Amino acid sequence: MKTHDLRSYRSAEILPRSEQLAWKIAEVAADPVPVLPEVTEMIINRVIDNAAVAAASVGRRPVASARAQALCHPMRRGATVFGMPHGTRVSPEWAAWANGTAVRELDFHDTFLAADYSHPGDNIPPILAVAQHTGRSGAELIRGIATGYEIQVELVRGICLHEHKIDHIAHLGPSAAAGIGTLLNLPAEVIYQAVQQALHVTTTTRQSRKGEISSWKAFAPAFAGKMAIEAVDRALRGEGAPSPAWEGEDGFIAWMLSGPDARYTVRLPGHGEPKRAILDTYTKEYSAEYQSQALIDLARRLGPQIGDLVQVDSIVIHTSHHTHHVIGTGANDPQKMDPDASRETLDHSIMYIFAVALEDGGWHHVRSYAPERAHRPETVALWHKISTVEDPDWTRRYHARDPKQKAFGGRVVVTLKDGRQIVDELALADAHPDGARPFRRENYVRKFLTLSDGILSGAEQTRFLDAAENLADLPADGLGLLNFTVAADALGAPRPRGIFDWE
Fold first, then answer.
1. How far is CA 407 from the centre of its chain?
2. Cβ atoms within 10 Å, residue 75
């Protein structure tokens, strides 16, 4: 890996194109390195993972809305839309919009956390949509996805967005554009322009994940994927981008990040070096914010030790800065303690999540968020006894580069009404690659079968899994097999019309 130093440059200074981050990303994307077998295997796992969570969300309102919009843009070649017949094709950017929303809606697919946050599986819908539209093979798709993961992971390692209240899709737009560039075997010049355009149009605020969290949380990554496709299309037509997008005097570093005097470092593979970053990412066993994964496992372990939860006086979760300030009491969001909060908000309340996991001994992607579940008096009482505090050591471990030190959990102190304390901690979720029971192929398959049960027919489940597990051998124009079809009554209630289907 090569380390690249970044800073802002005045317009009067000369920053050669070869030294710009966007060009270095483009060079990585254009480098025709083979994909390692273990990377191919993990890409297949994540294609299955994405389909699993998309199937579970296919009838939910935001997903149905995005799908309805996409279906207003049919195209002869085009790309498939989750839930629809395999022959239904729409313009690729709209397929990315619909499928990206389906993948993101339940906050249940893969994650990577470092200096910033990400769900790198969000790269798959736009890259797959373009691959279907352009008749690419499974092997070509795998190369594109490997690049998308590589670029997003390294941007997340090197550049913190959340401290400036910028949403993490600002790393996703460039990574998806780079992945599409690899997929289509585009020259570095075209990828360079597309990456910068994608950065420029996907820089948004973190209010999408703050306060009264709405369905935009699911739409936001789909928007970035859609913008990435449009950016590549414009670049292919010879259109340029604001350059240098990161380092310019009025660019990303100077005005969106830490200012003209800031310094950042981003590592990228050298020429001929394989793209391995997907192997550093991890998926979710539970449908909740990633920082809650280890704490759900810890709640399962603590429940039997505590016994009667009525005897709990207080629960304090000592954890990282991120967990405390984003999903903990450090966010200062009253909605995180409100039984009437949206599912998206409860998903970002570790106080709610920990209370339910203690009571139920686990977590369910539907039942745990049901309004009647959130309104149980005993749950509300326990929920309001839970708080978080930032612990510098957990923050250090959260940001550690050494995998043996890295941690996303916390230490929990349960104080009972008689004064006794029960203390336990867990650094990594059980399903993490370094956890107690890491996810393997069989776990991804089981997750798909569980989440799609009652939504996909048994024959359709089997057909999809066969296609996904043989992804590397799918021929050109064979990627439509990575769609799944469901019965019309599983697609949710009809949505109100919008502009695109106005009558």
1. 18
2. 13
CATH match for 291-426 among 3.40.190.10, 3.30.420.40, 3.30.1330.120, 3.30.70.60: 3.30.1330.120
Its CATH architecture, for the domain 2-280, is: Orthogonal Bundle (1.10)
**C-alpha–C-alpha distance, residues 229 and 232, integer Å:** 5
Q: How many Å apart are CA 110 and CA 103, to the nearest integer?
A: 10
Two tokens, residue 263: 């310094």
pLDDT tens track, the chain, 503 positions: 999 999 999 999 999 999 999 999 999 999 999 999 999 999 999 999 999 999 999 999 999 999 999 999 999 999 999 999 999 999 999 999 999 999 999 989 999 988 888 999 999 999 999 999 999 999 999 999 999 999 999 999 999 998 999 999 999 999 999 999 999 999 999 999 999 999 999 999 988 877 676 888 889 999 999 999 999 999 999 999 999 999 999 999 999 999 999 999 999 999 999 999 999 999 999 999 899 999 999 999 999 999 999 999 999 999 999 899 999 999 999 999 999 999 889 999 999 999 999 999 999 999 999 999 999 999 999 999 999 999 999 999 998 877 778 899 999 999 999 999 999 999 999 999 999 999 999 999 999 999 999 999 999 999 999 999 999 999 999 999 999 999 999 998 777 889 998 87
Residue-range domain boundaries for the chain: 2-280, 291-426, 442-490
- Could you tell me if 64 and 98 are in contact, meaning their C-beta atoms sit under 8 angstroms apart? no
Topology agreement, domain 2-280 and domain 291-426: no
User: Would the pTM count as exceeding 0.85?
Assistant: yes
312: tokens are 């709990």
